[in-house]
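thought: fold this chain, then report.
action: predict
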Amino acid sequence: MPRNLDLTSLRSFVTVAEAGGVTRAAGFLNLTQSAVSMQLKRLEEALDVPLLDRSARSIALTGAGEQLLSYARKMLALNDEALSRLTDTAFEGEIVLGVPGDIVYPAIPQVLNRFAAEYPRVKVQLASSYTRKLKEQFARGDCDLILTTENAPDAGGETVSEQPLVWVGAPGGTSWRQRPLRLAFETACFFRPRVLQALDDAGIPWEMAVESRSTRAVEASVSADLAVHAALGGMLPPYMERLSHGGALPELGVSKINLYVGDLKANPVIAPLADLVRQAFRSL
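observation:
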């Protein structure tokens, strides 16, 4: 057995564990899916133990994988810290990244983690709000780059992902069967008018059972099976699931995730952060 673990393979292993799959991890790492799979295979062969349980539909860690994950995170953190200290990047300062609350998971934590490793002296402040407010903040210069959920970007924006808008509810929940249909939405949610129009067009009675300015309040209500919600398909938290309603609810179409980037001359370190955001969302 080799006495040294390959850090590249460990990084792929950690990313797969955190992203929940090889395909998403490949996007975060900017590698092909086959390259990530090969690194995982080499790591398992080097340790002579299985690290991933591939028997289920979704990838899960084995007992040995859970144990290695803890060590791997520490090893990579030390590696990245040593590299950043010794190479001593000249970039310092602060960047404000604006993201709607319903698309933070799962891409943004990966983006922030990778950026912090490469630019430890740059502080990224995450501003979570709804699309309209973020665009206002960006126009005032309060945010250096923002993500939005619009049907199409305005001038200066670019689409980095396109996701289906789907009905979501509590795992195993039944509230979607009730009539009038009980809904939970933020007051300023960009998707809300579209959802209500789709229900009206389908002749389905509804009531706004939960209305809040807080994303967390909406998510808590939905996960408790008190109401249903609509969200982008690739960005569901683990305590919600896409509803298999069999056509009982109307289709909601797709929505684009758009990126707006500020003045690169004023702050050139915005560019690498924007690249990480593009990679992360295009991999979804």
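thought: worth noting. The chain has three domains: 7-87, 93-161+256-282, 163-254.
final: tokens above.
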